[in-house]
Write a structure and sequence with these properties.
alpha/beta, single chain, 3-stranded antiparallel sheet, 16 helices, 18% strand, disordered N terminus, 8-stranded parallel sheet, 16 strands, binds zinc ion, TIM Barrel, 396 residues
Amino acid sequence: MAIAACLNAPTRLKKLMTEFRYELLATDGKARLGRIHTAHGVIDTPAFMPVGTAATVKGMLPENVADTGAQILLGNTYHLMLRPGAERIARLGGLHKFMNWDKPILTDSGGYQVMSLSKLRKITEDGVTFKSHIDGRKFALSPERSMEIQHLLGSTITMAFDECTPFPATEQQAADSMRMSMRWAKRSKDAFVNREGYALYGIQQGSVFENLRRESSEKLTELDLPGHSVGGLAVGEGQQIMFDTLDFCVDMLPANKPRYLMGVGKPSDLVGAVMRGIDQFDCVLPTRSGRNAQGFTHRGTLNLKNGRHRDDDRPLDDQCNCPACTKYSRAYLHHLIKAGEILGAVLLTWHNLAYYQDLMADMREAIAEGRMDAFARDFHAAQEGGDIDPMPIIED
Ligand SMILES: [Zn+2]
């Protein structure tokens, strides 16, 4: 017995170190502080996942993305299957090696972008056929093929193949769409090749209808998947409807597993969703806005194209420690953008990613200390207070 116990202890420890699991560390209201353990390392939650669409977070070296505090990236199945192809990435050692990122990667199922980007798509019970938006080549995607692609990529977290129900949808449309997604979730589970430390998440659908969200959650809970996401929000319904839906739909998902809100969002969306129990987010906003001269700051969102910054030698955000804020002025960022210099987009992307990661870290600290309500009040007050007064413009 003693020998068996000795042998078992390290085996148990090794298993704990490698198995995919969610650890709930503290709660404050509905907000949760936690940790997700994966084969590629730990993710502190609530977490924001920068989007690396085509095996790159646009304009950023992966080590610099990690410097901002990111512990996980998102990759897009749709983009990667079209170019350079999942089989090619697998031959080249998988997505982690291909893009030089050794921390966790979550890939979406491809479904959402097939609906939003591809041409001549046809949806049947089997899956979707479509033509590439790049060169018109014909492709097919099904739960089985989506699982195969995400496996070839080597995703740490694979998403079930689903249909993102458009908004608005009638209750009947939302029900039909959700029920097909639940049948696809079962097929996704059957096709998913499980590996230690990897996970498949199921996606709750049901639009804004409480009964449909509940039905979806019950079907997903039966599948006993290691994590869940809330799908079908941030599709044009607006923040209030999104929050109203989150108020009931998050609690329906098992509390001992991570909950991921897909495609969200603005800083105020993140704060509101964390307070409703969400643990993971992804959004193109910080990177896309960075390429469009927008900077997110503690005092709201700024447009660096604006002439008010022309003679401003102060940092973009004096509370931020990123290179854009500690080494360069608003005047320099404004100049780079006006001159169409690549570095302008790089620095603003860097700053926005750092701002998002700082926001998540601040929320984690606030939950740990039981002051999430006060944090949210201060956050909104600072955002609504607006930017610092402009510096006088010198005409010459
Ligand atoms: Zn900064």
